[in-house]
Request: fold
Amino acid sequence: MSFGNALWKFLASIALLASTGLKADDLRLYDLYKLYEQKVDVCLSQTNGISALLLKQPWLLEVDDNQLKEVIVYFSRYALDQCSSKEQDSFERALNNESLSSQKIILEWLEFDVQLEPPKWLDSEKLREIQSNDISPFNPIETYKHIKQSK
Reply:
């Protein structure tokens, strides 16, 4: 789902939730969501490079093609999430002040409750090693091509 579509869903959910205690004129939650959306856009604009961190992982040269794609997709999303985590946390903290039914509707509409899981086959030590580094948003396609050429 694009963030533009999510914004429209969010606005519609605010109108829908007016009867459940969330005031339509309470823009704090909306403003925090807009800040989060803007930060995601900034993070996405930074995805033009190759992940130097993943290129330094020699074990990626040994995995099969599907596993390589899984790792790159996971860490691409992970890097984007890390890039916008402060803004997402602020939005979620404000959302926690709303009723449980309001939270559920908004989270489902925005698909915030969808968590990307690391590949099950990936060794937890390798996962922690990469996650312990500062991983910046990167272009997953270009990173994949570069690693694939190195094999």
Q: What stands out?
A: The first helix runs from residue 3 to 16. Confidence is low (pLDDT under 50) at residues 16-20. The helical segments are 3-16, 28-45, 52-55, 65-83, 85-95, 100-110, 124-131, 140-150.
